[in-house]
Structure formats: C-alpha cells, structure tokens
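BUG: 3D viewer hangs when loading the predicted structure for this chain

Environment: internal workstation, default settings.
Expected: structure renders.
Actual: progress bar stalls at 90%.

Input used:
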Amino acid sequence: MPLTVGTAGHIDHGKTALVEALTGKNTDRLPEEHERGISIDLGYAPLELPDGTSLSVVDVPGHERFVRTMVAGASGIDVFLLVIDAGEGARPQTHEHLAILRLLGIERGVVALTKADLVDEETLELARVEAEELVPGAPVVATSARTGAGLDELRAALAEVASRVAKPGADGPARLYVDRSFSLRGIGTVATGTLWSGTIGEGDALRVEPRGRTVRVRSVQVHDRSVERAEAGQRVAVSLPGVERRELRRGDVLVSPGVFRPSFRLDVTLDPLAEIPPRVMLHHGTSETAARVAVAGDRFAQLRLSRPVVAARGDHVVLRAGTTVGGGVVLDPAPPRHADPARFEALERGEVLVHAPVRASELRRVGVEVEGEWAWSPEWLDELRASLDAALEAADPLDPGVPVPSEPWAEAVVPHLGLERRGAKLYRPGSAAGLGERAEAAAAVEAQLGLEPVRVEDAPLARFLEEQGRLVRLGDGYAISPAAYERARAALVDGITLARFRDALGVGRKTAQLYLERFDADGVTRRVGDARVLRRRR
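Structure tokens produced before the viewer hung:
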C-alpha cells in the first residue's frame, strides 16, 4: 500500500542527510540550498522498505522562516519521521513541527536520533529518554547518516508503523494538492503533489480549483516512473497539456469534477495552542490564505477567507499568526454566513446539514435519502439569488443578463432561481436590452455613419446597434450605415477583384478590403485566388 512519510525537526538536525542515506537521493535541488547548506523548499524521494512497502518521502525545511513550507509539505502525509540531533536534543522547531503534526492529525511515526556517532553513550541515552517523553509510543532509533549505523533499524521501524496506517480507498474522488509546477520540453506543464484520495490516470478529466478550469491528464508519473494510474498516498507528477505554467501554483488542487467546491468559509472545531487572534493565516492542503476568525462558543469557529479553498469534512487546518497558534477540523466546508453554535454542535454529533449543493450520491453514502441529483438549503439558494440580483443590477443595459453559473449543479439549481434562461445567460423575467443613458452616444455614432468606416470605441454599443439594424460592423471596431452596406453589396459582380471593387465604390484599398471581408463572413462572397465569387442562394 503506497504511503507518504514526511520529515520534521529543527534546522541542522540532519533531516536531508538522513533521507539521502535512506534513499540514495539528495532532496535539496535548488542551487541556493547547496550554497547555504540548508533546505529551503520541499524535497522528495522514493523509499522501498524491506517488507515491500513503498513510501514517498517529503523532506521539509527546518528553519523557522520556512514553517509555512513545512506545513504545505506535511499536509497529506501518513507517517512522520521526526529528526532530533542526539547531541542537541529537541529545539524550538522540533516542538513547533511536532505541534503541527498533531494539529494535522498525523499520529503515527518514528523518531530518528541523528549524529549518534558523535556523542557518548550517556548523551545518547538522555536524548532517547527525552524523545520517548516527547513522542510517547513512537519508536526511537539512533542513527548516523555518515556511518550508516541504525539505518536498517529505522527502515524496519518505518515499515512496522506504516503497516498500522489506514489509507483512503481508491474508489473515492481524486484530490491532489499542488505543491510544485514546472514546464518540460515536449511534455508541457507538470503539476506535482501528494494524492490524498482516489486515483489519477492518463486521459482523466480533472478540475483545477479554485480556478474552475477543466483539464485532461496526458500522463502520470510516480517518482519519475510512468504509471497507468497513481494511487492515493503516492507522490504524483501529472502532465497537463494546454495549461501554461503560470496558470498553476502551490495551493491549487486537482479534483474529480463535480465533487469539491471552492469556499470562502469553513466551519471548524478549534484546537488552540495559544490565544487565537481574530486574524490568522489559514493553512490547508498546500494553500495559505488570510482568514478572519468568528468564534462560536468555546470550541468552534467560522473561518472567513480572503481566497477560496477546496476542503472536505474531516480535513485538518493549521492557524498561524507569526507562530503556530492552533488548528481545527473542518465540520462544514461550505457553511452559511452566520456562525451558529447549535449548528456546530449538530455537525459534531454527526448530523448531516446541507448548505451549498451536495450530490445526492454523497448524501446517500451516509444514509441520507434525497430526491433529485443535488440537494441544497433554502438559505444557500437565497444567498445565490442575492448574489445574482446584485450582478444583474450592475449588468450593462445593452445586455442585462449574467452568465449561467458554470458549476456542476447549475442545471438543477437554475430552474429554482426565478430567472429566465436565454442561452448561456440569465435575465430578470421580461427584461429587455435598451440604450438607457447611452441613447445620446448612439445617436452621435449614427450621425457619423456613411460609406467610410467609422471607429466605434464602445464595442457593446456597436453590437447592440447592429442587432437593432442601425449599423453594420466592419473589421476590428469599425462601423458603416446599413445603407452603405447595401450600396457596396450592389456593386459586387461575380469574379470582382479588390482593385475593381475599390474603384466601383470609390473608396480606398483598406476600406474596400474591410467590406469584402465582411461579405465573405456573411456568406455573400467567397475568395478564389485574387477575386471574389458570388455565392449562389439556394
């Protein structure tokens, strides 16, 4: 069963050296990491254990300036490898990293006492006792990356701990939080991350959230090896054709379509390490965003976010304000706006409360039967109506509609909104396009129209007037009168050239070209060589 192990520990306690001794791979890939001799970003390596267990190792930086990076790397791991220098013992980042692991719900792991060859037996024993008190129940193994001492015992301890870890099944929806993206010649953009749940394979359609973009997987690799399907618990690299590197960043998530929704609010149980201030940085998956904390009672809070996150019930979050101040477990990933203690208590009891749309199939998994394909609360529908009403109020009078939501639930929800659907847009019942305050501008445009094209800077106004039959658009931003269009059309003869048409109309070459291109687009003519042939009407 594939699992991911993440390192933790203070700077210079030997995490990267230990990973290299275990795997044969130096996870420091950046030039500045080699120059400074410290880890700055996340590093990755595969580790095959004697019992056949495959582990993906995530090596995190230990410096206090990079705790946010450590949190991104620790999210989604199954087993921790806490590294403590046998000569120094636990240090500040040892304690903070350990607290973060606990907040993330990562309970199983191994403690490695590093540089054991550099201390005497008494010092080593004191370090062992301290580690056992610090992480009760975790195996403690003395190691030396330089001599190789203890590495076999460490592998065995990791295998034993990994055998007791349960991993989400492959039948769940795919969810991969991106921690790195880059471009490769001939391959395109590649996104990497730990696959939290489900599987990903060639040809799969996924959504990039919270960007709301659908992508298709070209190929999948696990630690530089191509695979047909990657499984939950593996470090995965996904090739995404047609996606620019700048369109993906750490914190984005690749998910199965129609399952997870971005949200600006999370209801959570609170697990404070210190007094939690009203404004914090929320860490979830590999994302980081500012959040306001609305406390509800002693144990609950609603987190109101500056950027949306993609979360699920039961996910763990970490809260930081200069240092780690606490965390929480998600009770509702898309709650209503108010922080209601009664609702929190019901959620904690396991009651299923629906606010934003949820697939009926997801509710049936937990024993709730509903009609239709989607379920949502009346309060959520009111919120959506209010949002759309504000958008309609601000819409251009020339086209007083708003786009139909692109979410998977749109087809089920739109009929309940009390709006008219016309193609890809929603309108207030009976609403019609009108000039409104632009009537004077429209009259000014029409007054200028003639045979020579006139530049019209207001493109929506030009489209509206054309739909009303009051002008004809040419080229990029030009217009003529309908009478001029008909006059030019009357000058056409079969096989006419640009030069002959220009002379017949008495205009310049550029203007004649604009007319002919419009006639081509309208199906009046088609170009054959240097001439235009009239299309025969059926």
